[in-house]
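Weekly structure sync, notes
Attendees: PL (lead), two postdocs, one rotation student
Agenda item 3: pending single-chain targets
PL asked that the sequence for the first pending target be pasted directly into the notes so everyone works from the same version. It is reproduced below exactly as submitted, 425 residues in total.
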Amino acid sequence: MAGAALDHKNRPIVAVTGMGVVSSLGAGRKDNFAALTSGQSGIRTISRFPVDGMRTTMAGTVDFLDFPEFSAPALTEKLAVTAGEEAIAQSGIGRIGDFPGPLFIGIPPVELEWQHRFDLYTKGTGGGGYGRLLDVARKGDYKNLHRLISFAGVEEAVSDHFGTIGAPISLTTACASGASAIQLGAEAIRRGETEAALCIAADGSVHAEAVIRFSLLSALSTRNDPPEKASKPFSKDRDGFVVAEGSGAFVLENLDSAKARGAEVLAIVAGCGEQADDFHRTRSKPDGSSIIGVFRDALADAGLEPGDIDHVNAHGTSTPENDKMEYMGLSTVFGDDLAGIPVSSNKSMVGHTISAAGAIEAVVSVMTMQNGRIPPTINHDVPDPDIQLDVVPNEARDADVSAVMSNSFGFGGQNVSLILRREPA
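Predicted structure, written out during the meeting:
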């Protein structure tokens, strides 16, 4: 349309007008960014359940929100609502209960946790295990639990709370879920399907069964003492990630619509790259082709060259293989430009929030541009000589950042890269 703000592919430009975040460091953008840039860690010894005999005893839990008896779906819902409310308040669009666009939400798979299964099993009187479960189900004593674990329970509750338009779009792409939710919202605006979108990702899944499962995959750090030293992205002595909880939220709008209502434009979603890996349930292809492809796709989508990127907010999980593969992809795509691009991993301080990671890190990326200050990668005392990155070690770095690449790689092979920019002049 005449006079419309369009990108290099003649698509509507997607603006970020509101952001919200919760992590193990606290609730809210300002508190989280202040803690991150001061090098604080939210990783601590688990107190939510007994950890005697477990190989990993620390996590980045969110224990400060007020909600009923713990369950992963209940906490995930609370986290999503908390971040979403902050984002909508900042954007000034609509109001709680009447958001003028759809919801795209990344959440973990929802299932009955072991304590619920045990409770249901022991309270039934129908004979064997299955009979007991049927007996309890017939009594109908678990309506709230059923709502939480039933199909679309969490996302429908979040959609109802915010009054979003249409059926909520929920997705579970493992560690890429948060970035995927933002990508879907941006694409809907680019296609002209909506003028605004609420994109949220949340994960409140630190419970005993989840920690044990990740431990059986040999994916978790076992450096329990002190817990804040456990996450060491890109360090030679890294030994695994630290599972964590949190949420991130974006309000996205068509740039013209945002300006027409006088909204503050915080950033632009300039590019999105997505490729699936088909090699292994948890491992990347040895040649890194999917990761390389996703970086190239994101740059092409944004109309940028590698040298235009001022900062990489890395996936940087602290696992031996993942950090190596991310470096392989970056070095292949960025070449000589990589030496001048500072790289950092927020997971060194908040842990790996799985489904929420991409959204939380996108919020931090925008705040990095706004404040001209790059959060550090803490615990980076023994650099890996095989990973030649300009890692921002242990202390924040002041820098003029106008374009950030934020990366997310998920179990199962879902790889997403977002490019966030300042509003074009």
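Discussion points:
- The first strand starts at residue 14 and ends at 23.
- The mean pLDDT is 91.
Action: rotation student to compare against the earlier draft before next sync.
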